[in-house]
Structure formats: structure tokens, C-alpha cells
Design a protein that fits this description.
The chain is mainly beta. It contains one helix and ten strands; from the N terminus they run H-E-E-E-E-E-E-E-E-E-E. It has two domains: 122 residues, Porin, CATH 2.40.160; 38 residues, no CATH class. 22% of the residues are buried.
Length: 208
């Protein structure tokens, strides 16, 4: 009877600790481009604002289960105020189960604003993953606590080592709305680029 009770208690502890939750694994790898988009709320003791996040990310080098990434382009909003990307960096932790983003964004008036976000993988499909984010946005006037629900979707990964010469292959490049050359390297540059004849038809897709 004591053994049965102990086994029951152990089972409850395992369930409560999350071991029965399905293994979560986001398809994250080096030299890959992603879109992170979603919405939520930014809250102070006085007000609640609707906030949106839309970022283009490019994964870089991997060390253990951590993959660094750069933020190529995008924006974050607080109600009608839009902040553009200034200097953001982040990490995919534990092979994509968690995401950390830190750095600076810039308001339309030119004032720097800092952000610190931490995301947890909630669910995923073969096409995309859903993350829940919490964190802070610190402006010159207030500090907001933020809560987001976001979707992370991968764009076409370019194999810079491929030597295939199949001219029927197509290559699709996705360009974020409002993108421009801002002195930030792309995720393609993170790989080793070999000089080869171009054997792909390139299709440009502009994202609204």
C-alpha cells in the first residue's frame, strides 16, 4: 500500500514538472532566415497599449545548443507609435525552445528605446512555431511590461556549398516591407560563399 501511494505521488510529480509534455523542438539551424511576427500588450501601472512585433532574423553560429542571431529589419509598435530596429541581437536557446532578444530600437523622433524579451516555445507545426514572449520596453518616459503571442516562420535556406547545376531550380528571396541597406550583414554572408555560376531563377517576394 505504501509502495502504491509512493508511485502515485511520483507520477503526480512527473506530470506537474512537465515531463509528460510533448518534446518541443523548433527547426532552428545556422545560416537561416526567419520572420517573427505577433502582437500583444504593453502595460504600465497607468495604461495598457496594444503592441505589435515584426522582425526579420538571421541565425549565425551555433555553440552547443545555443544559436546566435541578428535582427536584420523590422519594427515594434506601441499603439500608433512605431519603433524601428536599431541594434538588436539575440539567441535561440536549447535548440529553439527559448528565444532571448535584447538591444535598442529607435522611435520616429529619434530617441533610443531598449527592449529585453524572453520567449518560450508553446507549440509548433511543420511550417512554423508559436512562442509566448514576456519582457520589457523601456522608453524615455515609461517602462512597459510586455506580453506577446508570436509566430516564428522560416524562410528559404540558401545552401552556399551546393554545386548542383540544375537550372530548373528556383530561388525565392523574401524582402520585408520597408527594408533598406542599413549596414547589417545578411544571413547569407554568415556562411562561406564560393564563387560559382548562378544556376537559379531568382524570384523576389515583397512582404506586406
Amino acid at each position: 500500500m505504501i509502495i502504491k501511494a509512493a508511485l502515485t505521488l511520483l507520477a503526480l510529480l512527473v506530470v506537474s514538472s512537465g515531463y509528460f509534455v510533448n518534446e518541443a523542438f523548433a527547426e532552428i539551424s545556422e545560416n537561416q532566415a526567419f520572420l517573427l511576427e505577433g502582437s500583444g500588450f504593453a502595460v504600465t501601472e497607468e495604461i495598457i497599449k496594444i503592441s505589435e512585433i515584426d522582425l526579420g532574423l538571421s541565425s549565425q553560429d551555433q555553440r552547443g545548443s545555443t544559436i546566435n542571431f541578428l535582427t536584420e529589419d523590422g519594427f515594434i509598435t506601441l499603439d500608433d507609435e512605431e519603433f524601428i530596429i536599431s541594434n538588436l541581437e539575440g539567441k535561440f536557446l536549447r535548440e529553439g525552445k527559448y528565444i532571448r532578444i535584447n538591444g535598442e530600437i529607435e522611435s520616429s523622433s529619434g530617441f533610443d528605446t531598449s527592449i529585453s524579451f524572453f520567449g518560450r516555445l508553446v507549440s509548433e507545426s511543420k511550417d512554423a512555431s508559436v512562442y509566448g514572449f514576456t519582457g520589457r520596453i523601456t522608453t524615455s518616459d515609461d517602462t512597459y511590461k510586455v506580453i506577446y503571442t508570436t509566430m516564428l516562420s522560416s524562410l528559404s535556406k540558401i545552401d552556399t556549398t551546393s554545386t548542383t547545376t540544375d537550372e530548373s531550380d528556383n530561388l525565392t528571396l523574401y524582402i520585408l516591407k520597408g527594408s533598406s541597406t542599413q549596414g547589417v550583414g545578411t544571413y547569407i554572408e554568415a556562411g562561406t560563399v564560393r564563387e560559382q555560376p548562378l544556376h537559379h531563377k531568382v524570384q523576389l517576394m515583397y512582404l506586406d
